[in-house]
Amino acid sequence: MKEFVWLGFVLGALSAAGNVIRTxxxxxxxxxxxxxxxxxxxxxxxxxxxxxxxxxxSGMNHxxxxxxxxxxxxxxxxxxxxxxxxxDAGRFTCVADEIPKYxxxxxxxxxxxxxxxxxxxxxxxxxxxxxxxxxxxxxxWTGPDGRPHAVSETVHLQRVAPSDAGTWVCAFxxxxxxxxxxxxxxxxxxxxxxxxxxxxxxxxxxxxxxxxDLKPHSGVGRLGWWLWVAVGGGCLxxxxxxxxxIVLCKRSRRRKRKLQKLKNGRQSLTPKKYCxxxxxxxxxxxxxxxxxxxxxxxxxxxxxxxLCNHC
Length: 311
Fold this sequence. Notes:
Elements: H1 2-17, E1 19-23, E2 29-31, E3 41-46, E4 49-55, E5 61-63, E6 72-75, E7 78-81, E8 90-96, E9 99-113, E10 124-131, E11 139-142, E12 148-151, E13 154-157, E14 166-174, E15 177-185, H2 218-269, H3 279-293, H4 298-303
Parallel strand pairs: 1-9
Antiparallel strand pairs: 2-7, 3-4, 3-8, 4-5, 6-7, 8-9, 9-10, 10-13, 11-12, 11-14, 14-15
InterPro entries: Ig-like_dom, Ig-like_dom_sf, Ig-like_fold, Ig_sub, Ig_sub2, Tcell_CD4_Cterm
Keywords: Membrane, Signal, Transmembrane, Transmembrane helix
Transmembrane segments: 225-249
C-alpha cells in the first residue's frame, strides 16, 4: 500500500514539474495539453492569469485578461504562441476537466558585442540572458577549449586571440536539469593580410627601361581633344554647305521653269502679223498692172522695184 502511495506522489511531482520548452524572442512555439478530448472544460493560464477557457458542453470560447492572448490561439486543445517576447517566459497551465498539466517556457538570448569578426587584440562581451528561470538558477559560459568561466550571464574577453575563436556554450539549469545554447565567435587570423595590388604603370614599349613610369603630357591630351572638336565642327560646316547648295539648285530650277511657262504664254497671246498696205500703194500697184497689160516697155518695169512685194 505504501508503494502505491509513493508512486502516486512521484507521478504527481512529475506532473507538477511539467515540460520545459526553450525558445528565443520572435519565434513561434506550441504548448501541448496532452489530451484529445475533454468533457466539462479546457482552460489555459499564464501564471495566475487566464488566457482561454473552452466549454465542453456549449463549445464557446471565453477570453481571459492575459496580455499574451492577442498573440495566441487554441488549436486542437494546444496553445500556439506567435512572436514570442521575453515577458512571455514563465509557467503555463493547461487544466482539462480539472486535471492540470504544467509547462515552463524559457526565452533564451545569446549575443556578442561587437557581433562581427574580431581582430586580434580587441575586446568582446558575451551575453546569455535566460528569462523564466527559478530564483537561484545559475548561468555559466564555457570556452571552445572546455574551460568554464565565472558563473555569470556576462563574460568580458580582453585582448582576444585566435585560440578564443570557436563555439562558446552558455549552460543553465532548471529543476535539476541542465540546458545549453551555443554562440560562435570569429577571430581574424593575424597571418592573413589584405594584399592591395599597386596601381598599373605605363611603360613605353620602345624604351629599354621597363621599370620607368611615364606620365602622358597634359598638353597632348588637350591638343587631341581640340582636334576632335575641330574635326567635328568642320564636318558640320561641310554638311550645312551641301544642304545649302541643294536648296539653291532646286530654287534655280523652279525659277527657270516659271520663266519658261511665262514666255510660252506670251507667245501664244501675240497676234500674227499680216501685210498691211495702204490705199495709195494698192492704187499704184493696180496702175502698173494695167500698164503691163497695155504693152509698156518691160525694161522700165524691171528697173523700178515693186512698192509692195507682198501684194
